[in-house]
């Protein structure tokens, strides 16, 4: 049996929490095992003055970790599944999907108790096209300003008065012990979550059977099924992580219920669809859901989003 396992991770406080979490879960499961962290920055962490949607490129948060694995310095990488591209580079695979944490988005404000309480023309901060499209659809009067940086930076900008409120992942705040900053969670009806939001995944070398066997203790089959459906929808829509696409799968016994949406950047149009079926058909149901959205005109909306990105460079 392996004596040590090395984890490549981003070094933001949130990513470090996630890697530490996996380390402690593995050490609990295997008392003889020693787990080491290898923290590093990625392109997505370094370029902070450009909206994420404009940096583009697959694997913005994952490529450097894979490079370190290739160099033989790490055995696995821990990722927020939300940041993992739909297709991994040759030789890599996802070996375990952990039990999902909160999938929702959180409303955070020092002045207002809820999203509904925001006054006319309030300034809302978010870095996500998906949040922007859905929240502007509900409140076209809001001024949405871009908000980048790690969780602490984003809260700091709110506290400095740059925004009346911000919206960010509930799971990120909870992991960092910042629950008390959450005024409320946005319901899926208000803001459908991002693909796999709140889910952690472990990437490994697909040939490394020993590592695969080791990390199976952390795999959560129900979350894995939800992840399969959500990623299948995103993949069929050819959506990267920076697109106005929401998708949320829930298990109902043997069945799975999946909701999806595609929105224009200004929220003036939101296409919605949903599907139910056997959980065993998660992959196929995700694809069907994407196809229902494409039939409603999702391709045209997404093409416009991508063209807009190119023009603004
Ligand atoms: N886009 C960055 C990112 N990637 C994953 C999370 C949250 C944690 C998760 O989804 O597990 C966040 C922060 C956010 O969206 O506010």
Oligomeric composition of the shown chains: single chain
Q: At the first level of CATH, what is the class of the largest domain?
A: Alpha Beta
Beta-strand percent range: 15-25%
- Assign the CATH superfamily of the largest domain: Periplasmic binding protein-like II
Please tell me about this protein's structure.
Monomer. Belongs to the HMBS family. Keywords: Porphyrin biosynthesis, Transferase. With 313 residues, the chain is α/β, with parallel strands linked by helices. It has 3 domains: 4-100 and 199-219, 3-Layer(aba) Sandwich (D-Maltodextrin-Binding Protein, domain 2); 105-186, D-Maltodextrin-Binding Protein, domain 2; 235-312, Double Stranded RNA Binding Domain. 35% of the residues lie in helices and 24% in strands. It is built from 11 helices and 13 strands. The protein has a 5-stranded mixed beta sheet with strand order 2-1-3-10-4, with helices on both faces. A 5-stranded mixed beta sheet has the order 7-6-8-5-9, sandwiched between helices. A hairpin with a 2-residue loop joins strand 11 (245-252) and strand 12 (255-263). Helix 9 packs parallel to helix 10.
Summed up:
By secondary structure, this protein is of the alpha/beta class. Helices cover 35% and strands 24% of the residues.
Could you outline the blueprint of secondary structure elements for this entry?
Layout: E1 4-10, H1 13-29, E2 34-40, H2 43-46, H3 52-55, H4 63-70, E3 76-80, E4 92-97, E5 105-108, E6 123-125, H5 129-138, E7 143-145, H6 151-159, E8 165-169, H7 170-175, E9 184-186, E10 200-205, H8 209-215, H9 221-236, E11 245-252, E12 255-263, E13 270-278, H10 282-296, H11 298-312
Parallel strand pairs: 1-2, 1-3, 6-7, 6-8
Antiparallel strand pairs: 3-10, 4-10, 5-8, 5-9, 11-12, 12-13
Helix pairs in contact: 9-10
The structure holds ligand PBG.
Catalytic activity: 4 porphobilinogen + H2O = hydroxymethylbilane + 4 NH4(+)
Pathway: Porphyrin-containing compound metabolism; protoporphyrin-IX biosynthesis; coproporphyrinogen-III from 5-aminolevulinate: step 2/4
Modified residues (S-(dipyrrolylmethanemethyl)cysteine): 241
């Amino acid at each position: 049996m392996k004596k040590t396992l090395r984890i490549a991770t981003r070094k933001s406080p949130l990513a470090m929490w996630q890697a530490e979490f996996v380390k402690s879960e593995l050490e609990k499961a295997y008392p003889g095992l020693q787990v080491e962290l290898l923290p590093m920055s990625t392109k997505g962490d370094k370029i902070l003055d450009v909206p994420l949607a404009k940096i583009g490129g697959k694997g913005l948060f994952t490529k450097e970790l894979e490079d370190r694995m290739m160099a033989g310095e790490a055995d696995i990488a821990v990722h927020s599944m939300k940041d993992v591209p739909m297709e991994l580079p040759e030789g890599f695979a996802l070996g375990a999907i952990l039990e999902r944490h909160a999938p929702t988005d959180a409303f955070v404000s020092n002045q207002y108790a809820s999203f509904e309480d925001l006054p006319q023309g309030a300034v809302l901060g978010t870095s996500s096209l998906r949040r922007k499209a859905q929240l502007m659809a509900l409140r076209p009067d809001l001024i949405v300003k871009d908000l980048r940086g790690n969780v602490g930076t984003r809260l700091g900008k709110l506290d400095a008065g740059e925004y009346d409120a911000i919206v960010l992942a509930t799971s990120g705040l909870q992991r960092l012990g910042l629950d008390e900053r959450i005024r409320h969670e946005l319901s899926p009806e208000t803001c459908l979550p991002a693909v796999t939001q709140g889910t952690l995944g472990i990437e490994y070398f697909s040939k490394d059977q020993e590592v695969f066997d080791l990390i199976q203790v952390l795999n959560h089959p129900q979350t894995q099924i939800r992840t399969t459906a959500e990623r299948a929808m995103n993949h069929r829509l050819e959506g990267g992580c920076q697109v106005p696409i929401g998708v949320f799968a829930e298990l109902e016994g043997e069945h799975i219920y999946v909701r999806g949406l595609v929105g224009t950047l200004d929220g003036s149009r939101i296409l919605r669809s949903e599907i139910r079926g056997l959980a065993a058909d998660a992959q196929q149901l995700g694809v069907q859901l994407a196809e229902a959205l494409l039939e409603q005109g999702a391709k045209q909306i997404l093409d416009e989003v991508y063209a807009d990105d190119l023009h603004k460079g």
